Amino acid sequence: MAGNSASPGQSVSGRLLAVLDCFDVAHPTLTLTEIADRAGLPLSTARRLIAELVAWGGLERLPDGRHFRIGIRLWRIGSLAPRQRVLSEAAFPFMQDLCEATRENVQLAVLDDGEALCVEKISSRQAVPTATLVGGRLPLHATAVGKVLLAFSPPQVWRDLATAGLPALTRNTIVQPGRLASALEAVVEQGIAYSYEEMTLGAVSVAAPIRDASGTVQGALGIVTHSHLRVDQLGPAVRTAALGISRRLA
């Protein structure tokens, strides 16, 4: 028996995962009530599951006694994920060099569930402020790293995105599937993608694909900078760094 919950038939493990899934970059700490609401669980069930996760080390109770956050044990387990670990280790030295040379935001992203997941980020003090954090998600159609990942993704990813619609994040966002398809063709041909204030006004970006030994795109390396700068002049540096990371992966 799965017990009393908003999801009849949900297993105990499913409810535990639902509790953990409540946390994200926008919600790094939550109260018992917030977890119960977001997970769709009764308070008594949420309280019991949280107690089990705290005892195991999957969650931590903050000093205020009311809020919880992801525990160090889950962080240790997550750090073992081979795809992210290998990619991040290969990319980090190149990201550091790129940040020092350009004084801009440097991001590493991978495709995850129809979005670009930021797995590494390095910024300088002079860089344009961005809301993107490690673990944060970016739209595929409105960012340079997203366009790279979308351009080299399986066809179903594009079909799902086009069917769901392309939301306008700024007045410059490409929302017509035909226009975006043409832009993605150029990304495949040139091996580089651009975003011109399509996600945030005042910010532009450029990105290039990172490939493994088989030639499969495993991620995208990008720079985000001020819109008054010539982002195309940063393209060669980004592409060179992405090639260097690809060689390390190979």
Explain what you see.
It is a single chain. By secondary structure, the chain is an alpha+beta fold. It has helices at 12-20, 32-39, 43-56, 72-78, 82-102, 144-151, 155-164, 177-190, 235-249, and strands spanning 30-31, 59-61, 67-70, 105-112, 115-122, 137-138, 193-196, 203-211, 217-226. A six-stranded antiparallel β-sheet has the order 6-5-4-9-8-7, sandwiched between helices. The longest helix is centred in the middle third of the chain and has 21 residues, at 82-102. It is globular and about 55 Å long. The termini are far apart.
Gist?
By secondary structure, this protein is α+β, with helices and mostly antiparallel strands.
Show unreliable segments: 1-6
Shape: globular
Give the terminus-to-terminus CA distance.
49 Å
The residue-averaged pLDDT reads: 89
Assign the structural class, choosing from mainly alpha, mainly beta, alpha/beta, alpha+beta, or little secondary structure: alpha+beta
The strand count comes to 9
Largest β-sheet summary? 6 strands, antiparallel
| Rounded radius of gyration (Å) | 20 Å
Order of helices and strands: HEHHEEHHEEEHHHEEEH
Beta-strand share of residues: 15-25%
Fraction of helical residues: 40-55%
User: Helical element count?
Assistant: 9
Spatial strand arrangement across the major sheet:
6-5-4-9-8-7
